[in-house]
């Protein structure tokens, strides 16, 4: 009888495996990627153009000292990546308030009811908009599965491609729905897409549905219901505290050179820093600020040139008195979606949050502009203060969350997943799961991009002997 074969594994040398990696951007994607790369033994430096970490997540003092979210706000336990970090760093959540009164505008008429009335009115509309979501997204975190699977029936593949064309509201213009219903849908999705519904890919709404068990109520709960007790700041600062690497603030990257084994970045002061790899986590709307050599691929350049569907804004408004409201208005109005978020009993005031499709339609810091926007609903609310951050005009973001134009779901963003050179991309805008809209997608790509790069950087493999 032959004796068993023994295999001896030589321990990997940490020093021989150590590589230098540059991460561009200190938002959730950049911080997560940095932590992963550090834990694998690599030497990481982070360059951040802003004077703070967090990216498009930013807890700031506003409207008389209240801690408010300028960008990303809501989280949920069904968002797997952000919930892991919430658990890891012992963060707590609490709900946005229940609402007493709902208002929606159609053809100049203000309709009113309860929040339940609004939910019922929306449910039939959303069911039509979500049509096909179960067929198109059997695996929601693999959104292009039906295109990539050779066993997908041709009929399904053609329907999937067709659903990336036209507008998200086209399916409602068949005579089955009233103008009031269409306007209600326009209100909801003008805020959701952060841009014109006329150019919004229908597939994005269907994908959101698949991530929410194809239920509009769950989608609303995931994207508009639960906030962090210590704000987004509590989470991104906890994550940053786990990082030992240098995070250089106020340090913009203007150029990235990348090859099969090395890369380098040029900083705004002309300094060139070389590395074994570069991970760029810059939003799609700000990638135009960086020159890439060799140039990015045609699909990537097209997406950067055209931008996403995101041209909108988020505004915080303080009004006099107690107002428990949710309100909607079609995209031609400055604010498409408005809801009460904080009741300030000691000030006899309410803080509302609003979203609109066109950041040029309102002055976020001008009370007169905000008052004009609120007067659409004829509720008598009086503006005391307002504010926000214009992400679309911000050179380091160029957009709020990245939503997809017609045709962009099936091309463009996925091209940033390539690994042909030592240049890699991460960020919520190119996530496979919650693409663009929530922090979950940023963390997802920070992890997956870093882990793929870690595998590629391994040069010393275990040896075996007999």
From TrEMBL:
Residues 28-453 form the Amine oxidase domain. InterPro entries: Amino_oxidase (IPR002937), FAD/NAD-bd_sf (IPR036188), Flavin_monoamine_oxidase (IPR050281). It holds the Pfam family Amino_oxidase. This is NAD(P)/FAD-dependent oxidoreductase. It comes from Rhodococcus ruber.
């Amino acid at each position: 009888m032959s004796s068993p074969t023994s295999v001896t594994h030589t321990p990997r040398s940490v020093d021989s495996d150590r590589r230098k990696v540059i991460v561009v951007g200190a938002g959730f994607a950049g911080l997560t990627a940095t932590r992963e790369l550090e834990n694998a033994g690599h030497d990481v430096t982070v360059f951040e153009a802003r004077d703070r970490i967090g990216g498009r997540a930013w807890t700031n003092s506003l409207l008389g000292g209240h801690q408010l979210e300028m960008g990303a706000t809501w989280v949920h336990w069904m968002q797997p990546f952000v919930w892991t970090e919430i658990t890891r760093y012992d963060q707590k959540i609490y709900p946005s308030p229940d609402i007493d009164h709902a208002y929606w505008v159609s053809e100049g008429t203000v309709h009113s009811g309860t929040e339940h009335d609004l939910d019922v009115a929306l449910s039939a509309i959303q069911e039509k908009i979500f049509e096909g979501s179960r067929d198109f997204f059997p695996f929601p975190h693999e959104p292009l599965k039906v295109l990539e699977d050779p066993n997908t029936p041709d009929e399904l593949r053609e329907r999937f491609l067709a659903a990336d064309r036209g507008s998200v509201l086209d399916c409602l213009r068949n005579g089955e729905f009233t103008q009031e219903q269409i306007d209600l849908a326009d209100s909801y999705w003008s805020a959701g897409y952060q841009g014109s519904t006329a150019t919004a890919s229908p597939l994005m709404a269907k994908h959101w549905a698949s991530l929410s068990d194809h239920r509009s109520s769950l989608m609303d709960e995931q994207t508009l219901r639960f906030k962090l007790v210590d704000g987004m700041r509590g989470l991104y600062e906890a994550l940053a505290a786990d990082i030992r690497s240098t995070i250089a603030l106020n340090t913009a990257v203007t150029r990235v050179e990348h090859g099969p084994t090395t890369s380098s970045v040029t900083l705004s002061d002309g300094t060139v820093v070389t590395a074994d790899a570069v991970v760029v986590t810059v939003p799609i709307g700000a990638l135009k600020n960086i020159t890439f050599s060799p140039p990015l691929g045609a699909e990537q350049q097209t997406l950067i040139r055209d931008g996403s569907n995101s041209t909108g804004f988020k505004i915080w408004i303080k009004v006099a008195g107690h107002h428990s409201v949710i309100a909607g208005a079609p995209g031609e109005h400055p604010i498409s979606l408005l809801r009460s978020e904080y009741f300030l009993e000691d000030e006899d005031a309410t803080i509302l949050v609003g979203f609109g499709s066109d950041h040029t339609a309102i002055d976020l810091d001008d009370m007169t502009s905000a008052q004009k926007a609120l007067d659409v609903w004829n509720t008598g609310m009086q503006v005391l203060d307002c504010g926000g951050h214009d992400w679309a005009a911000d050179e380091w973001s160029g957009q709020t969350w990245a939503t997809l134009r017609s045709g962009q779901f099936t091309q463009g963003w996925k091209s940033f997943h390539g690994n042909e050179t030592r240049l890699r991309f991460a960020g919520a805008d190119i996530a496979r799961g919650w693409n663009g809209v929530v922090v979950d997608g940023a963390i997802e790509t920070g992890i997956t991009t870093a882990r793929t790069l870690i595998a590629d950087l391994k040069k010393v493999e275990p040896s075996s002997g007999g």
